[in-house]
Design brief:
Helix content is about 20%, strand content about 30%. It is of the alpha+beta class. It has a domain at about 1-15 and about 40-175 and about 185-210. An 8-stranded antiparallel β-barrel has the order 1-6-5-3-2-7-8-10, surrounded by 4 helices.
Length: about 300
């Protein structure tokens, strides 16, 4: 279990911009390999929402006061690009953005329990039995908070986005620079991990859309960047980039002849958006009003209640 609180600032880059900036960053920060010899990490993120798309609607109207519930799987491609290395666990996250600060609560959960968890079953004992180390730290606290969200909102998988991440950092607590590229959006796979061992590009099927952009994300404790980074970014404005709203936007629109950044017109702003702040709902109606408010703290609501 992990709880993170830090500032995250994103920039949308063209391929050549990203290549140039990687060269600069690599002179100041070392390439970070979570597993030695693996310079890139592949990530599949499953985004969950209600039938009224309440989390989506909240995010498009309130970039700085919203909540996302998602599952992230990390895996690696080996030398030939066809052989994959994946793992039996993934991470369930509650991600909130409040007054510019990103707060992330994360649980490591075996893939075989994911569907049961989101169906509302209380699987705490099974989780701890599968991995006794989960009984320590604050696992139970975050698990109970997730349970309260799932009791308040009935959610199911709405989109999957897959991408390759490159990380540069010395100390994650101080400064972390990531480049996310080769982004592709997919329909949720029926049954998820009940049917496949890994949600990778070999099992996800044909993407709905490939996004030919690179997302630069800078995570830091302080508001101020190092001088060398400020100089390189120069007049480049941060963008309200959201993989979540972009993927939902794509999956709920008619794509017919749309190609490129013209389909990214949401106010959050999704990838390729114009950053105007104007809210333009997708063509398919998603629901008039969102009741999701990240200022509601379900970790305190009925705090004496044990999930059943």
């Amino acid at each position: 279990m992990s709880i993170f609180g830090r500032r995250e600032i994103k920039y949308e880059l063209e391929m050549q911009e990203a290549k140039r900036l990687k060269e600069v960053v690599s002179k100041h920060l070392p390439l970070y390999e979570f597993r030695r010899g693996r310079s890139h990490t592949f990530i599949s993120t499953i985004y969950y929402d209600t039938d009224l798309y309440e989390f989506y609607n909240r995010a498009t109207h309130h970039y700085d006061n919203n909540t996302k519930i998602r599952v992230k799987e990390y895996y690696y491609e080996l030398g030939d690009g066809k052989t994959l290395e994946w793992f039996p666990c993934c991470f369930v996250e509650i991600k909130q953005r409040v007054e510019g600060l990103v707060i992330k609560r994360r649980l490591r959960v075996p893939k075989s329990f994911i569907n049961q968890l989101f169906e509302g079953k209380n699987i705490l004992d099974q989780l701890v039995n599968s991995d006794p180390s989960l009984a320590f730290d604050d696992f139970g606290e975050v698990y109970n908070e997730l349970r309260r969200y799932l009791q308040h909102y009935t959610v199911r998988p709405r989109s999957i986005i897959n991408y390759r991440r490159t990380v540069y950092q010395k100390n994650e607590e101080e400064l972390r620079v990531t480049f996310d590229e080769n982004l592709e959006v997919f329909q949720p796979v029926r049954g998820l991990y009940d049917r496949v061992e890994s949600l990778n590009r070999q099992t996800l099927g044909r993407p709905i859309q490939t996004i030919n952009k690179v997302i630069l994300e800078i995570k830091c404790k302080e508001n101020r960047y190092p001088e060398w980074l400020e100089k390189e970014l120069g007049s480049m404005p941060p963008r309200r980039v959201s993989k979540f709203t972009t993927s939902i936007n794509l999956l709920t629109r008619e794509l017919d002849s749309a190609n490129g950044s013209d389909i990214f017109n949401m106010g959050d702003t999704p990838l390729g958006g114009r950053g105007t702040g104007e809210v333009r709902p997708p063509q398919r109606r998603l629901g008039k009003k969102s009741n999701v408010n990240s200022s509601q703290d379900y970790s305190k609501e009925n705090s004496s209640e044990n999930p059943s």
